[in-house]
Amino acid sequence: MKSNREYRAQARAALKGNWSKPVLLTLLISLIVSGLTGSFSYVILDKPYFSVVSMLVTLPLQFGLVVAMLLFFRGQKENCVENGFRIAFKPFSTAFLVEFFKEFMVVLGLALLVVPGIILDMAYSMAEFIAYDEPEISPAEALRRSRRLMKGHKWQMFCLELSFIGWILLSCIFTLGIGLLWVVPYMLQSIAAFYEDLKQEAPVSELDA
User: Fold this and answer.
1) pTM for this entry
2) What is the distance between the alpha carbons of residues 75 and 64, in angstroms, rounded to a whole number?
3) Residue 57 is part of which domain span?
4) Is 146 exposed, middle or buried (CB count within 10 Å of its CB: 0-12, 13-18, 19+)?
5) What is the pLDDT of residues 19-75, one digit of tens each?
6) Domain for residue 33, yes or no?
7) CA distance 167 to 190
8) In 3D, which of 106, 41, 36, 33 has the Cα closest to residue 65?
């Protein structure tokens, strides 16, 4: 495995001269999600079904964003925006269920204690990539394989994500969050580089049942 500095360097190399479409995809998905969650918070007391509608849209979009960034890292740069929305809803069941089960397990861990929630978040951090690369497996199997793939690597992933905290804080404080449109693609490209390296060490398809 490479160092986290090298993964960030790979991310910058992938994005060099090609920031516009990842930033646009992040912007579009952010606007849709914020619009839905805003609507949800406005009508939650009278129309609780909006929570279901919100989840049915936002969870697949989250999946689509993550996988589109993986494809961008692999060289599919021109279709980044199209890939994000296409993958989110084709197949819809995979995108929704992977995110739903992942969020459920992480929230459950956070409800018990903060540390278990963080550990589960790291353990399942490769689930979207695996679900895309192994379309024949179930969403539950994608999460299980992510957990096995991340065995012994959760701390490095945590440190990789933590290394972006400075950029996140600066974006929130000085740009009112607008800077996150660049930070999110940068971080997801770094995670994609981490995944590509990790699966060479332990091919996903060869993980024990």
Assistant:
1) 0.89
2) 16
3) 4-201
4) buried
5) 999 999 999 999 998 887 765 545 444 555 557 778 889 999 999 999 999 999 999
6) yes
7) 14
8) 33
